[in-house]
Amino acid sequence: MTSPALAKPGNNGNPNNGKKMAAAVTAEAVMDHLQAFQDIADTHGDRAAGTPGYEASAAYVESTLQAAGYQTERQYFTFERFSVLESSLTVGSDPVDHIVMEYSPSGTVTGALESPAGVEGCAAEDWAGFTAGSVALISRGSCSFAEKSLNAAAAGASAAIVYNNTAGALNGTLGAPDPGYVPTVGITQAAGQELLAMDGATVTVHAVTELEDVETFNVLAETAKGRTDNVVMLGAHLDGVPDGPGINDNGSGSAAILETAVQLAKVNKLNNQVRFAWWGAEEEGLIGSWHYVEDLYYNSPEEIDDIATYLNFDMVGSPNYIIGVYDADESTYEAPVDVPEGSAATEAVFTDYFDSIGQPWVDTQFSGRSDYQGFIEVGIPASGLFTGADGVKTAEQVELFGGTAGVIYDPNYHTPADDIGNVDVEALEIMSKAIAHATITLAQDTSAINGERSAGKSGKAHPQGPLPTEEQPAA
Fold it and tell me: Regarding the domain with residue range 18-70+223-450, which homologous superfamily does it belong to in the CATH classification?
């Protein structure tokens, strides 16, 4: 295993404010952690939950934290792991490159290729006149892959082929097992265009899949200093998808909070305890973070109230990046979930920092589609940072951040090419320093979020009690 990265010479010995902490957390050190994850993936093939690569990744995180003075804890749980044992897709006798979607059922079906009247297959009327027994050819977009597969089944399709709506492979998930699915695979946009011109051709879809119970774990660590009744929590998922290094998704977030933890350990006084989490099985459905929250909810519900806010970091080094902040104040995007009070103030810690250094940023939807989902479900404020996954970069975003319009933020998202060469170091540095700044800022003062304050840097509640808070209104 790669040795833990050591603190770089010249780092501030007591980085106790935002400016010092941002200077202490360097892109070089974060890249050292990413190189360790890359070496692990090179040795083991991937870093997916429940695999030797995940175990080695966790051991690296633990040894790095322990060298910095932390005690670490593993929180074990089990999950159902989906595997594809074999698959093929042929048109006539010609093979077509494809990826079986996660949670697709097994099956071998042959039928005539047919597109629904509404190419995205998201509404019942899209399937009017569809021929039962045909293999459905559907465009990505507007609804989930699960909805597409269920709608195809309801229309009598024997299988579903979903083609991408942008360049690149389509490695999708149906979200969870469901007996209503038909065998479902993803193909590229180019392959989809070719098949659209072959309506009625004979297609065979073959997939052998399985679900098995697997044990894995979260890695947890917290500062010994600071109030335990006003905890600031940071998290990033440590696991990657099978068959790839998972360096941007999400070695980048894991490495950034790891280096932040290393540097935070040097701070002499903290008002609020900081807890770090490296989640397992995020790629299997946010399972590790949900396990953590549910364990608190059912076994230690009083500890939920002790968490002042949760910061989430899932992909912070995308090659065609944006500097995105979860839009907790809904100033750009209406959230499809309830946004806990205090989340907008958490968002402002990031946006105020970016504004103070002249760094452009954009809102990304507060969707709940990452490891903050469980936290906001129990009312814990949250926000986070994101450089983009499979969304398409706009010309307006190119004006702000450079890169290429019309191309997804990470063309190697969920592919074997998500390696250390897939990381934009400039984006990683911008985001890592923002994470560092936010961590020490909230470690000293969360009064804007929940009113809680301390007297100086005493690490104790202020004798005059909390301050009133004024949540920022939605735009």
Answer: Zn peptidases (3.40.630.10)
pLDDT of 2 higher than 50: no
Question: What is the C-alpha separation between 26 and 7, in angstroms, rounded?
Answer: 10
What is the pTM for the complete model shown? 0.84
- Contact between residue 188 and residue 85 where contact means Cβ atoms under 8 Å apart: no
C-alpha distance from residue 156 to each of 110, 166, 238, 394 (Å): 13, 28, 40, 38
Amino acid identity at 390: D
**Given 120, 259, 282, 452, which residue is catalytic?**
282
What whole-number distance in Å separates Cα of residue 349 and Cα of residue 179? 44
Ranges of each domain in the chain: 18-70+223-450, 82-211
One-character DSSP codes across 333-386: S--SS---TTHHHHHHHHHHHHHHHT---EEE-----STTHHHHHTT--EEEEE
Q: Return mean pLDDT, the chain.
A: 95
| Residue 282 is among the residues annotated as catalytic for this protein | yes
Q: Are 200 and 114 in contact (CB under 8 A)?
A: yes
Written as one letter, the residue type at 306 is D
For residue 382, the tally of other CB atoms under 10 A from its CB is 28
Q: Which runs of consecutive H residues, i.e. helices, occur in 202-267?
A: 253-264
pLDDT in tens, 395-431: 999 999 999 999 999 999 999 999 999 999 999 999 9
Q: Is omega for the bond preceding 268 within 30 degrees of 0, making it cis?
A: no
Q: Cα angle vertex 65, ends 18, 416, to 5°?
A: 95
Output the CA torsion 255→228→68→258 (10° steps).
Answer: 0
CA separation for the pair 5, 67 (Å, rounded): 10
**Closest residue by Cα to residue 397 from 326, 321, 327, 332:** 321
Which tens digit of pLDDT belongs to each residue from 196-243? 999 999 999 999 999 999 999 999 999 999 999 999 999 999 999 988
- Report the pLDDT value the prediction gives residue 458, as an integer from 0 to 100: 84
Compute the distance between CA of residue 300 and CA of residue 285 in angstroms, rounded to an integer.
23
For residue 217 the two structure tokens come to: 């774990």
The CATH number for 82-211, chosen from 3.30.70.330, 2.102.10.10, 3.50.30.30, 3.40.50.2300, is 3.50.30.30
